[in-house]
Every structure is written in structure tokens, then in C-alpha cells.
Amino acid sequence: MTAALAHLCDAHPGQSGVQLLDDGPAALAVRLLLVRRARISIDIQYYIWRNDVSGRLLLDELAAAAARGVKVRLLLDDFGCAAIEQLAASLPGLEVRLFNPGRLRRLRWLNALFDFPRLNRRMHNKSLTVDGIATVIGGRNIGDEYFDASHPALSADLDVLAIGAIAAAMTADFQRYWDCAAAVPLAQLMQPLARLPPALPSPQRDLFLAAADGDVTHAMVDEARDFDWADVRMLSDPPAKIAGAAAEDTLLLPRLLAALGPVRRRLLLVSAYFIPTAQGAALLGGLAGQGVRVDVLTNSLLSNNVALVHAWYAPWRQRLIAAGVKLWEMRGAAGHRARLGLVPRRLRRNGDPTSFFRSSASALHAKTFIADGRFLFVGSMNFDPRSWRLNTELGFLIDSPALASRLEAALDASLPHFAWAVEAPGGRLAWREDDRLIQPEPGTNLAIRTLFRALGQLPLGHLF
Questions:
Q1: What are phi and psi of 337, to 5 degrees?
Q2: Domain(s) of CATH 3.30.870.10: residues in the chain
Q3: H or E element, residue 34
């Protein structure tokens, strides 16, 4: 890392400098720049890694870092990274481990027939930490749909770039995952390729490289004015959760609730996959009953990229609304572009900031919440039983009234433009768009509604 970055951290001992990465191309550009700046170590942990333009580009940059003597370690979830496993095994200098791998490597789907309870638990953590001084964590996996503004399946998402004290905590957390029994060296599972396939040239690759080389990206990392300095707490599940062997009080959610304390004024929750269950509905409804303003943004059926999740979310809408919770559902590709104003000023063109909520986004993938205009959580954890009970998760709890209030105000101004407000006039659900109410549910017909109603009655929501 540069002297400028070290100087920033030295000027704020015990604190962390944070900025939100809500622009997809910028989020990749920052990752590429950090990898290029690395001199000692790069620790990477991901649930999904695509073999596409952005996925291959980042792998090539990691290989280049290893070639100049940087210690590069990749911890990849076996379920989500099959597309690049053999390629990763073949790149020189990379240490790669797979988390909770299946025993059969060729006909992988057969694993589910005899080993489903184990393989249904996954490592959902997402992080990239460089030299123990800078880290990027959040909702994004590695793939074009998370970074490419023109991608037809663009996912609206949110990451945090953090420097300073929190990066050391991330390094320690990565180490405990790397050392656990579930992390198996990739070399024990497959042979490297005899010949590496070349990375195919593409205009998007050139655009990504240009962004990483640009003055804007360098300024985002080096200059103080884009960082908010705050107390940041890293929270993650213990690796033992993957085997069902972790004590309840060591899990992320209970620790997060304890660290947060009572919410007294406002909770604004953004969760791509939202299945509240009876416990979660009671928590949110209880807050609303105490006079707390509770807003929840999640995917609509049209924007959800996992339709079955919607089937187990939908039955809770009436109960939540009756309890006083305000529900919002993202409109998807047809929604208006929101102007959150969170992108650093040098990325703004003609006063129009880019945003992770954009008109071309087809799915919401962010996982964040704001409490009382003070606390901001950003990470990999959805508000659903899979995140609570099955997957391991990771996130930052940021104590920053300035950052939390800025995001809260921006969401309040923008939500009506890119999401439907779900209401229940006369006990029948309706979706408000501007001054009109839409009934029945957008994107459905009688057959679809009947099917989803039946699926929602099946006790399988904890699997998804």
C-alpha cells in the first residue's frame, strides 16, 4: 500500500476510514487497484466467482501479484465457484482452498443425493483484504452482473471500502476460516490444467482496466475527503457454524443485535432475500408497535432472481403491514433510476451521481440496514433463515451518524421512484406506484398466484 494510505490511517488511530461502493464499475476498479498496490498479502473470500470478464480479469491480476512476490490466498465456496476452480488451481503462485467441498468432483449434482444436509450449508462471506490495511466487504460476489453497468442482469448492490483498524480484524477473521477443517486445499481435489486458456479480449475488459488505471479510482483510495472515519465493528459467524457446531451466542445475528442495542426511532432494512419467519416478523412488528418507524426494502416477484424465495416471503406481507411495518418491493428493470448521491464527487458527471439502484438493474442484491440515523450495517447477511442458521456470514457495523443519516435521507427520497409501496386497503394487497394502486400483484396472473400460494405453505423456506 502507498505511504498516503498509511498516513491516513496513522492520523486516525483505532478508527477506520469507510466509504460506500454503490457503483458497480467503481467497486471492481477499487478491487483491481488494491490488488495492484499489494506488497505483502492478499486474502480473498467469496461465495460466487464467475468465469466471465470481471472474474477472469481479477484472477489474472491476482496471478500478477503473486508473480511479484505477494502472498495470495483464495478461500472459495465450493458451491458457487465451480466455474473457476480448475483455472484457479492452474494459475501459478496462488494458494487456493475450497470451503465445505463436495466429495464427487465430476458429477457434482450427485453429491446432493447423499450429502445434502452438509452441502446445504455454505460460506456466504465476501471480502478482499490487502496488506492488512485495506479491505472491501459487502454484498457483491465476483461476476459481471455485479460490476458491469450494461449487463442485462445487473444486480443492485452495496460494498464498503475500509482502511485502518478494521482491516487487521478482517485479516484475523480470514485466518480462522483458512485454518478450519472445512477449508480444503484445492490441490487435493483436482489437477491443474495442462495449458491455461487465454483471457479473451473484450471491450468491457478494456473499460474495467481503464477504470482501475484512472485518476478517479486512485483518488478514491488515497484522498481523505471521501472517507468517513468511524468506529467499525467486524462481525462474522464462526466457521464451525457450517457443521452446526457453533454456540448460539457466537453467531452473527445475536452478536449484531447485542451490539446494536434497542432501536428507538427508525429502522430501515434492505434485504435482497427477505423471509422474516415468525421470530423476525415479531421483532419487526414489535418495534413498529413501540413507535419505531420500520421500513423494509426487498425484491418483488419481478426483480427477484430466486423466485422460490418470493414464495416464502409473500405470506408474511399481510401480517407485517398489519403490524405497522412499511414494505417496499423493488420494481426491477422497469423502475426509475434513484439518485442516492453516495458515489464520491469525482465519479459524478454533470451533477448526476451513479447509484446501485439504476434503471437497468433487474434484481436487488444489497444487504444493509440503518438504525436511528446512527448505525449502518453492510455485509453478506440477508434477513432470512438461511443466513441466520445455515450459511456463514460477514458484515461491518459502522457507528457513523454522518454516513447513516446520508444514506437514510437518500433512500427516503428515492424509494418511491424505484420501488412499489405494498399496502393492504380493505385487507387486500396493493402496490402503490406514484398516485395509483396496482392490483393484483405486478407480473402475475391467476395461475402464478395460485402456484406461489401453494409453495408458500410448504415448510421449506429455511432451505432457501
A1: -75, 130
A2: 3-226, 233-463
A3: helix 24-37
Catalytic residue from among 23, 131, 228, 384: 131
The CATH code that applies to domain 233-463 is 3.30.870.10
Give domain 3-226's CATH superfamily.
Endonuclease Chain A (3.30.870.10)
Q: Is 310 a catalytic residue?
A: no
pLDDT digits (tens, 9 = 90+) for 192-230: 888 888 888 899 999 999 999 999 899 889 888 889 999
Task: Answer yes or no: 326 catalytic.
Answer: no
Q: What is the pTM of this model?
A: 0.92
Number of H helices, E strands in the chain: 16, 20
* Residue range 165-186, pLDDT digits in tens: 999 999 999 999 999 999 999 9
Residue 372 bears catalytic tag: yes
Task: Look at the block and give the residue holding cell 454484498.
Answer: 139
Q: Distance between CA 47 and CA 99 in Å, rounded? A: 9
Catalytic annotation, pick one of 124, 218, 241, 310 = 124
The residues facing 97 across adjacent strands are 75, 185
33 or 110, which is more confident: 33
